[in-house]
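BUG: 3D viewer hangs when loading the predicted structure for this chain

Environment: internal workstation, default settings.
Expected: structure renders.
Actual: progress bar stalls at 90%.

Input used:
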Amino acid sequence: EVQFVESGGGLVRPGESLRLSCVASGLTFTSSVINWVRQTPEKELDWVSTIAPDHTTAYADSVMGRFTISRDNAKNTVYLQMNNLKPEDTAVYYCSMMTHRGRGTQVTVSA
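Structure tokens produced before the viewer hung:
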């Protein structure tokens, strides 16, 4: 069974940073494309970023230049470094692969 466990969320002020982690199990991690997606308070589910097995990355325009996705294959872990956070980044952040998704971690950006 594919499982993702996200962590690292919290309440921060605009301009601050957070680093999210996602530990994966039940899959061949080294050959898996992993995504970060987020669900806003309005319940919209937005794609944030993707990392391929060869570490190729892609980002939504809204986070380009502020977020960095990375992976540690030895730890079956994907990270999302989030800098210069904005109130519109407030959401529950999920790690996902195809139809699989974790329980998420809440990120709240508020002054």
